[in-house]
Structure formats: structure tokens, C-alpha cells
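Ticket #347: bound-state structure for pyridoxal-5'-phosphate.
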Amino acid sequence: MGVQTVVDLRSDTVTRPSSAMREAMAKAEVGDDVYGEDPTVNRLEVRVAEVLGKEAGLFVPSGTMANQVAILSHTQRGDELFIHRESHAYYYEGAAPALWAGAMITLLDGSEGLFSADDLVQAVRPANIHHPTPRLVCLENTHNRAGGAALDVTRMDPVINTAHNLGLSVHIDGARLFNAEVALNVPAERLVREADSVSICLSKGLGAPVGSVLVGSNAFIDQARRYRKWLGGGMRQAGVLAAAGLLALENRTRLAEDHRRAQRLLEGLRQLGYDAWGPSRPTNMVMIDTPGPADSLVQEMASHGILMGTMGSQRIRLVTHWDIDDTGVERALSAFAQWQGAGRHVG
Ligand SMILES: *Cc1c(COP(=O)(O)O)cnc(C)c1O
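RESOLUTION: The complex was predicted; output attached.
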């Protein structure tokens, strides 16, 4: 780690498994998980359910499949799903809720990727033959397109409780839930206590090569297991992956280092005059708004070995992770200091 010459700030998905992970993968006890016989997968599912305070878990190949299996399990064709306009499950998962679940999406707005309880009340129409059946609310924590915003229970719980009062179920896309846990200093279990289902990614800041886990009630997970099979996500000796996932769960507190480095990046970029920003409760991301095309700054930095991603034509996202050390952060900042082009906000 830190030996490669490229500083890859595109995403926390780019980490490679540690040697300890590779060793655990090599030694993993395995069986056929479609028969429910992979002891390592079973252990991972139980462990994540325990950590998040839910009855059962389901290991799936990706965060996208976790979200889509959740939506399938909560809804029937023609049901209505309420989701923020900037949410991953809407913005970055193709037309999946329409394709698989046949759900109708109603988009809501609000700051930092979260709408208010009031907005939800306004959006839910009374039962009537003219309307879809309101069924599900999907929330996201941390919120990716809001710059990795960690959302505390004071903001989440009123929305979740209101959804329940309206007879809706609630799924939380917690791809980076443990970043919220660390940033807010609130146990993940508490952050999702009121929700019906939660998905987490093992393959982002936690550093596993592959995998997500969906958790919820026993009945919900039984249903989800059928839908995972539908989508082709029933894997066989998946214990080799789950073994890495179990180790990844031990990396939760290490996320604080990513947050510290993101903060250093943010401060350094601002000192250099960039229009860099983060959410009110930041985690492992920094956003830069560029007056000109974001692409030109991304390309210029790439030529210096600093990789970043865009989020729209005039926004860049930088993500810290396990493979970014303090030297990487300083190298990125000195490359930014040299750039005098259209990405530079002032002087
Ligand atoms: C990455 C991500 C996902 C999807 O995970 P994949 O494993 O890439 O499919 C879902 N939700 C959020 C918020 C994410 O950041």
C-alpha cells in the first residue's frame, strides 16, 4: 500500500485485497452456498445481521444487486417507490427498479440527499384506483452524490417513522454506512434501527475485493434469497469472497483515517484557491466545482499520476481509501498547486 506511483482518488472501490485477506481467502472453508452449505458465507451473513441489529443477512455480489433485490422484495409490480433524485439506486442503477420490480419511482428533493418527513407526507397520495400503491421509501447513508454526507438519526428517523405511519417500508442503501458510523460516532446499528432493510458494501472503504450484504427480517431475507437467484446472484463456493468480507468488517474503525485525509485534501485545495467542498458531516469524499469543464482538470491531473472522477460536467469527486496514505495526499496537493488551467477557481 502506498508503493504504487499512481494516486487513485477515483473511488474507494479501487483498493486491492490485503495479504491477510488473500490468506484468509486461500484458507476459507467453503461449500455450495445455493444449498446454504457454505459455512463462511453463513458466518458473514450472521455477523453483518448482528452488527446491524437485524434478524438475517444475504451475501450478494454487488451493492446494486443488494438494492435491487431489496426493492423487489418490498414491492409488487406497479407499486410506488419514493426516492431522492440524487440517490444511487435511482441515478446509477440503470432502469433497474422499473426492469425487475416494475416499480414506479417518485422522485423527491432535499438537502444532502435527504427529503423531509413533510415532503414525504405531501407526496403520498390517498388510496385510489387512479394512483399507484405507495409501498417503499429508499434512503442512502452516507449519501454519495451529496459528497459522502453522513446523515444522523435526527434527520433520518423522522422520515423513517413517517414512512411507517403511512404504511410504507423503508430500505437504507448503506453502501458506506460504516463511514457514517465513524463520522457521527453513532453505532451503525442505531443509525438503521428504525429501517426494515439495509444494504452495506464490503468492497468500498472496508477493502474487500467483492461483495455486499443485505439485512432485514427472516421473512424478508427468505424472499430476497429467491430474488437473488432470479437475478443470477446465487453463487457456489462464495466463501472465498465471504472470508475477505469478514476481515473487511474489522476495518470499520480504520475509516477514520480516510476521513482525516479527505479533510486534509479539502483544506489544502481551498488554500490553493479551488472551489472544494464537503457536506456538513463529511466522510471520505471531497468535491471540487470547476468554472470550466471538469474533464480538462481530470486529464491534466491524470498526466501527473493523480486519478479522479467527475460528477457532472463541472464537478470532480475525490475519494480517500486504504491505498491512499499521507504521502499520496500531499502528492495530489502539489499536483493541484501546479495546475493553472480552467479548473482553478482563483489566482
Ligand atoms: C457503490 C454504491 C452502490 C453500488 O455498489 P456496487 O457494488 O458498485 O454495485 C450502491 N449505493 C451507493 C450509495 C454506492 O455508493
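RESOLUTION NOTES: The mean pLDDT is 95.
TICKET STATUS: resolved
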